[in-house]
Amino acid sequence: MSFRMKVLFWNMLLIAAAFGISGYLLMNRSFQISMDLEVQHVMSENQLIIAGVETEMVNRILQNSFFGKEEEWQTIGNEVLESLKGTDICFQIRNEEQALFEEQERPMDTDTNLLTGDLEEGRKQYIFYTDADRYYVAAAGSFSFSDHTYYVVNQRDISSVYIEQELQAQYYRYLTGALLILCAVVLSVITGVLTAPIRRLKKTTGRIAEGNYRTRARIHSKDEIGSLAKDFNVMAEAVENNINELEEENRRKEEFVANFTHELKTPLTSVIGYAEMLSAQDLTMEERQKAAEYIFHEGVRLENMSMKLFEMFLLNQEDLVMHRIYVPDFMESIGDSAGPLAEADGIKLIVQPVNACICGDGTLLKTVFINMIDNARKASVDGQSILFRSYVTEDGVVFEVKDHGCGIPAEDLHKITEAFYMVDKSRSRQKGGAGLGLSLAAKILEKHGAALEVESAVGEGTIMRVEFDREQEEE
User: Fold this and answer.
1) What's the mean pLDDT in 270-297?
2) pTM of whole model > 0.70?
3) Residues 6+ apart with CB under 8 A from 451
């Protein structure tokens, strides 16, 4: 059963219960009021009859024509009955033993002894009874004469009250049925409108499940469903971003494998070729020397590439151990390591440290800056210089490596930390590069909570910048 049908079902159940209970209470109250009115009428009639009987009896006593004989009660009863002509009043006059007067055409339908048996003088009482599918209320009252107690019993047909109640119940059933149908139609429309956003949200989830991660729920109501749709869109965006990141990561891995295979194939092909040349017997000494140098050069490049790949693997597996690093000593050691290689290419490395401290893994961070300087060296030519400096800002300590080399195109800046990416592959390979240095550097910086910033212009040079939190210097 759908949520809409559940809402409709339970609402209709509540409405039907409300109509049923309220109708029962109202009709029962109306019936009770009608019965109370009938009781009041029959009691009033009883009092009226007693008054008429006493009046006739007093008149006869004053005329010395009443002695309490049975035929005299018949006469009084007829006189009172005559005075009530045109009404539906039916009554009986009796003593404790027998009926003294009763209308022959409309005799009492109940045993009047049930009413008069325990009736106290001056009191009245009534009973309800049925006879031949008719409903009656009978009342009894008493009066005294010559030390004797007499009773007046009258009855009233109240079948119309029961008939009216049945008609009201039937009418109410029809009315309730019509109202329930109307409510069902109205509630169906209302629940359809209210649950429409849920159905749209369900369709959206179905499209996302099919792989359409760009789909969003277009629900703008300012209620719980609107909030749910908003949260759902946030979740869908997060899922899409995660999927995109996974796809991008998968693409990078595939590209990494392809590039790695290519980078291995190129030098290995040359190594195999030169090895075959060396095995030949007709090579000159100069040709043999050239082949050996190329094999050595490509072997060194393969060794560097394998070591950097191994470092990247270890970096993903291990947690870093941080230490306080004194910047001047740190930069001097980097200059000692990277300077000779730059000078061999006719490039001057200028080191300008600041007196400050940072926190990190010195060995890994040294790898970062050596790779940055090495990239600057590969982009520079004989006679140019590389500036390796640091300075203090309000937020921390900044390290910069600046060169005046070939520069990096703006559209390629975001690719420089990808494995095997090289702006100028021929220049990088000539200088022993494999495109892994900055990728490794980016991973190390990520472990330190830092990031590599690059500014570059083609033909003007490149600035690579990294900022670390500053540590308080020890006194």
Assistant:
1) 74
2) no
3) 442, 445, 466
